[in-house]
Amino acid sequence: MSHHIVQVQDLNHTYADGTKAVKGISFRIHHGESVAVVGANGAGKSTLLLHLNGYLTPQSGTVRIGDFPLTKDTVRDIRRTVGMIFQDADDQLFMPTVYDDVAFGPLNLGLPAEEVELRVREALARTGVEHLRDRPPYKLSGGEKRAVAIATVLAMSPDILVMDEPSANLDPKARRILIELLAGFQHTKIIATHDLDLVLDLCERTIVLKDGQVTADGPTTTIFQDMELLAASHLEKPLRLQACPICSGKGLPQAKPAVADHDHSHPHHHH
Fold first, then answer.
1. 248-254 long-range contacts, Cβ below 8 Å, gap at least 24?
2. What's the pTM?
3. SS3 content of the chain, % helix, strand, coil (to 5)
């Protein structure tokens, strides 16, 4: 189904102060893929993400969401398809209560009242924050705010979820809840993050940005084994790969079938 495809072709963006944030980025993401965008601060991750639902429109190059190139005319439709979760939940929450914030988008779509109510209830249930529905967002904890921000986006029923540093400033429990929540989202996910362990959990594909350009795009496991690439991109190998004698270069998994078998069987026992 082509309307779920995200295609960026030779995208460039220079800010008013002359900073070239994005320099000729191209990639294509298919329906249902979970893709991480990683790179040091200033690599262009946030600028790239802001193009995916039209907060920025291309200065040169194209962004296509499904069959539509992103333009001023298509931006409304594209925002229905693409749900954006910002790095700071306070940028997303501005209504007197959690309920009002989550209802805001569906009401804007002109949906009937009972459909709005249903969507809000479902979004709050999926994010585990039904008990907060009447609370003012500014009084919530960081993890609660993040969950509500995600609920505001889920209530719009997007096909594509775009997230900028979703696990930033979350405590370990809130982060774990977030990862489980995102793992349950079946559609396309594009996640810009410094949290490479979250990438291992959620994204089978990783795009590495450096100085506004794509320096690698491939299977997450392959990219995270490439020490030179990670070092050149100012990225640290994920913690759980650092601790593992197999992954830190003392023999690859296939060289030790006993360990590899154990690895494959291990995650499934607990479910």
1. none
2. 0.84
3. 45, 20, 35
